[in-house]
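yo

u said u wanted the structure for the complex thing, so here. seqs first:
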Amino acid sequence: GENVEQHPSTLSVQEGDSAVIKCTYSDSASNYFPWYKQELGKGPQLIIDIRSNVGEKKDQRIAVTLNKTAKHFSLHITETQPEDSAVYFCAASTGGFKTIFGAGTRLFVKA
Amino acid sequence: EPEVTQTPSHQVTQMGQEVILRCVPISNHLYFYWYRQILGQKVEFLVSFYNNEISEKSEIFDDQFSVERPDGSNFTLKIRSTKLEDSAMYFCASSAYTSGLDPQYFGPGTRLLVL
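structre next:
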């Protein structure tokens, strides 16, 4: 069945450094890849998404890249701040019905 | 900014009891979803709902689960006879689905504890 693998499970960086989270997906029909940030006790919040017809997308300090051939996509956070500390989930969807989530990456940004 | 709301925030129930979790999706959205997250684990898709019927469901969504849109604003998840393993955080989400690739917006969740 569909699967999304996410690495690393935990990531600790110093404030100001960059953080990179990587995901791979199994269903080649996947064409929409959202990223969610989940803070303690809250629901996942969409932070950025990318569609399969685009290779890269950037929004201020956050960027996503997509390699459809390799079925890889990544989240890049630059100039990390303590408030970036949270659990980040990648996800893949074939068009809106069923979204498959990765296992999550717990990001710690040390001040 | 419009947001998805869910009630109750916490629910404690005895095994075998029925529970109903409620959600109010974003008002102009057309697709509705339920997900669950067991403590410390990934978010798992349960079901999607459009035009008053289920459009897709996962293997988790068995006969003990049902969804309903009883009126123009609420979207509910019913678990008929709860089991210990149903203890989890349940998230409702909605999307506009105007292009088939719309983001889903999640509510704050209901924490269900089955004793």
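The CA atoms of residues 39 and 88 of chain B lie 6 Å apart. Chain B has a mean pLDDT of 92.
cya
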